[in-house]
Amino acid sequence: MLRREWIYGWLLLLPALVFLFAFTHLPAIATIWHSFHSTPRGRRPARFIGLDNYEKLIGDPVFWKVLGNNAWFALGTIPTSIGIALLMALWVNDRLAGRAAVRMAYFAPTVLPLIAVANIWLFFYTPGFGLFDQITAALFGWPQSNLLGDHTTALGAIIVVTIWKEAGFFMIFYLAALQSIPVSLVEAARVEGAGRWTIFRRIIFPLLMPTTLFVSVNAVINSFRLVDHIFLLTGGGPDNASSLLLFYIYEIAFKYWETGYGATLTVVLLALLSALAIGQFFLFDRRIHYK
Amino acid sequence: MFKTIFMKAVATTALTVGTWASAQAVDLQFYFPVAVGGGAADVIQSLTDEYVAANPGVKIDAVYAGSYQDTITKVITSARGGTPPQLSVALSADMFTLIDEDLVIPFDDFIKTDEDKAWLEGFYPAFMENSQTGGKTYGIPFQRSTPVMYWNKEAFREAGLDPDVAPATWEELVEFGKKLTKKDANGNVTQWGVRIPTSGFPYWLFQGLTTQNDVILANSDGNKTNFDDPKVVEAAQYLVDLSKVHGVMEPGIVEWGTTPKAFFERQAAIMWTTTGNLTNVRNNAPFDFGVAMLPANKRRGAPTGGGNFYLFKGSSEEQLAAAVDFVKWISAPEQAAKWTIATGYVAPRPDAWETEAMKAYAADFPAVTVARDQLEFAVAELATYQNQRVTTLLNDALAAAITGQKDAASALKEAQAQAEEILKEYR
To answer: In degrees rounded to 5, what are phi and psi of residue B322?
Structure first.
């Protein structure tokens, strides 16, 4: 009896397992395998070169630059976009007039294709006649700026676009979570005489923690995954100032066709993401679920 | 009953054999990129349709493959997957990459008659520089261009300059640029004198400057670069100095894509961009404009750019013969003239300019001949083995110099060292 259920169980899991192996685990293993090989070219097949690609990686200044950029990008986007998402969710959860319209406005960036978003921002940032320059020139008489073309501001300009895009998406999760918090808890607290801030700090925020974990895992993955807008806004430039790891992998693997080295970089990305995800789940998961 | 079924079966078989026979007609798959706005894709499609209508034995599946970058990616990916196209237009500068990937066949094998030879020799030599290596012809010029200089005649008049005379030398470019740069009461620039875009692929317009400084960036075998040559450094310094010293160009990286718009908005009085923007500027500039060759320093000069036809391995003899025939047809004067008038690309053969259509067009709009006349001074676009990688090294070095991260000499020296590392295995 137990055995038959066991078979049923595995049979039910089988389709998902097949897909998981075929499209997630096999490519990951193949990538690790390729990272120990040279890049095959038309006239020269791939050959085993051991750790050469990893040595190259350690000596590759662009890789370190890009990794540093990615760290700044993650630091710049994750806390801010989550914070803004929470604020926006609290705001549109209240009974304010026209809140459906406000919710839609906040969510709009998320449903726009990233390429369209990047195109819009490209013209916001355009020196001289772009929106920002027009506003700053009219209000403060500032000279024209070149936010995307300067190595000190290019990454920051991209971070702003990303936050604008991400915050609305995370707001939806917070909004759903807020609406599942029983009203009785807040009412009970009010009866006890708790103020708004105390209610938020002692009741709402703790109850939102599972959502915060979920959102933060997503935000971390996104901070390594979002590259589309870089293609349009800066192309990783100037001099790799706004290039991120995945964008660099694309360039190495599909622009330069150095697939061997591309695989090596991908292994690094895999390792980073696994470490971050495992860290988040094991460190925080147990502390934030209240039963 | 049995009989009717039998007859039906016979009929069906006959029909199947019939369609099978017509399927024996040569099928070609043809990838092409589009790098300028407007209806270039439609023009290629209609030219292809025209050819197929005249040649019932050939079917051509013309596939729009995105930008040049997307096209080369698509070509290499499909070749690795075992289904390469028979014919593709790809960046002329990617010739060495395609050879290195062992994907392309030279056209020479299909040049048999004297007529064929005359056809091959009929292209502008400047375009063939990027099409031939090791005595073989791998690419046939198709959507080719050169950068030219556009200037706003009204702005020239306001600055007290002759509106019909463009700067002809580097010194004049700076001198005119200073007169054309306008500032408002706060001291902020409202109109820059010159705009040379440097985003994305700065090496291309930069190659205009190096050619004018009488130096080439890479040898014709595609396995040696000259990035740290003192003349190259001098050209880079000139580009940097346009903003840093002379203050006639916007500082930082200047966006390629918004350059025509900046020109229309009078943010820049002179711009350098491809001749492929000619129709765009003609339709959208709200003022009188002029088109000139790029200015000279030690000599006149500009790179060529754009795409060539390539033939791919893995095709049958019949397919290759049909593909070559199609390329001959589409590069013939009448078709080339149609293509040039619709897009602004330079017709790749002198005889195309002799057609009635082209003559009438050039008489009505003389600016179209500037890019053609500049071909006399033009050189091959920078092309090496592992081309994308090597040109990126130069692009990064230029970006570092322009943004002041590094000085021009050391940035180019580093780029040269890295390029050397990549290219030494091809010698």
So the answer is: -65, -40
